[in-house]
Structure formats: structure tokens, C-alpha cells
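Now for one record.
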Amino acid sequence: MSKARFRLSGLSDEAGQALDKQILAHLELDWREIELRSVQGAAFCDWTKTEFKEIQSKLSSTGLHVTTVASRIANWERPITAPIESDLDELKRTAERMRAIGAKYVRVMSYPNDGLEEQDWRARVIDRMHQLTAQAYLENIILLHENCAGWGGASYKNTLDLLQQVNHPSLRLLFDIGNGIAYRYDAFEFLKEVWPYVEHVHVKDGMLIDGKAVYTLPGKGHSKVRECLSWLIAHDYKGIYAIEPHLHLIPHLKQKGQEQDLLRSYIQYGEALEELLDQLSKSRIEEGSLQ
């Protein structure tokens, strides 16, 4: 049922560094979507022209479609005091490649603080997001702000404030279910508040052990994955569910497991998500028949 009803994908570098491994994982899962972040450790916009053409050709030959790509724009590597020129340049280069492969969305964040007072941090973030969104509009792409590093991801109130201040259709939301564990908030409560703006979902689960986030299969942790997925199904969410397992690869912590573990666990994670979505769909149908 899940393959027919739901659009499934994943951040493919968590299946392996090599593109062939990333493609293999998605073909094994029989998924038509793939989300690009890196190949051989190099970020999407850092590939050479030759590498990009080779990657584009391989993806085209397999029939895999790229809807969303990751970027480093405003992420944990670039605090609010860093020059915005790096982000504007990356956005321009990323947009050109997105158009070439037919991608619509690019993931961004909203700048970690660097010693500023809250109001100053907020004001600078909003100003920069105005600039980035204006450029995205000219490039005919959409920024997906993730509930992750940065001012806008600190709480649902900040997220809504950011969206309302920028107020532009070229800025929407990527909701990562598992981020509540690392950033200490209730993901389900967060989702219910920001839901109208969500256009893409990352599925990740985990729990806190001795104060550290430890990641699990979907539905096995404390991120309220079941509640979030049930809510999305009930509200007829039409976007993609993309896995970001973090079981063996956590880019921002520079953690990477063995290649054979990456591929095997990625496929296992995808199958677990399919099973969970099927269970939740059947439960909803059964509940409806009893009403």
C-alpha cells in the first residue's frame, strides 16, 4: 500500500558515499524519488561540471526523480555573523543545477547564533531570509526551512514568526520529525502549529540516553513518529516522506559508519517506514468504518 499511496524518498548519502550505492538502495526499495545531499563526501553544489553531468546521466537512466536537494545555506557551518555572500553564491549555483535536474526544493536553515542578543539575532535572520527568498523567487525554486539549526528552528513560535515576516510563497517548511530529540521540544506539538506551511517531511526517530540523542528505526524512539505520521495522513499531506536515518551517518557531528552498514541499514529503515505507514493507514480506515 505504501508505495502506491505515499511518495517515499530519502537523503541518499546515508546509504553510502558512492552514487551507485545511493541509487541501488532506492531501486531495492522500489522508490522513484531520491534526495541529494552529497556524493563521495562532496556537497551538491561542489561537484565539478563533469561530476554533475555524470550524476545527472546516471539518475536519468534509472528513472529516479530529484524533487529536493540539501544545501549548507544558513546551516550549522554558517553562524549569523558569517558573510551572507557565501549563501547567496551557493543558492545561485544550486538553483542552476536544480533546474537542470528538475528539482523544486532546496533545504535551508536559519543561522546559529554567535553571541548576539535575541532581538538582534532575530532581526538579522529575518533580513537575510528576505534576501535569500527574493533570490529563490528569481531562480524559480522554493526554499524549505528545516526545524533545525538556527533562530527559526528554535521553536514553533520562531518558525511562524519567520514565515509571517518574510511572507512569500518561495519560503516553505521542511519538517523533520526527529529533530525534537536533539533540540529538546515535542515534535508532535511543533508539527500541529506549523502544519499549514509544511511541504516536505523528513522521517527520523530517536531517544535521549545520558543526555545524548541516539537514533532508532522509525516508531521505535521517543520522537512521536507515529503521532506525526498519523496526523499527516489524517490531514491528507501530499508531499514526500524522506528518510534520514542517522543510524550510521550524522553529517553535522562528523560521524560515519562502515559502508556496508550504511546500505543495509538504509534499506531496512525504508522498509520499516513502509510498514509503519501501512499500519497507520489501515488503522485509520478501520477507525473510519467504526464511526
Remarks:
- Residues 155 and 182 are 13 Å apart (CA to CA).
- The chain has a mean pLDDT of 93.
- Residues 2-290 form a domain with the TIM Barrel fold (CATH 3.20.20.150).
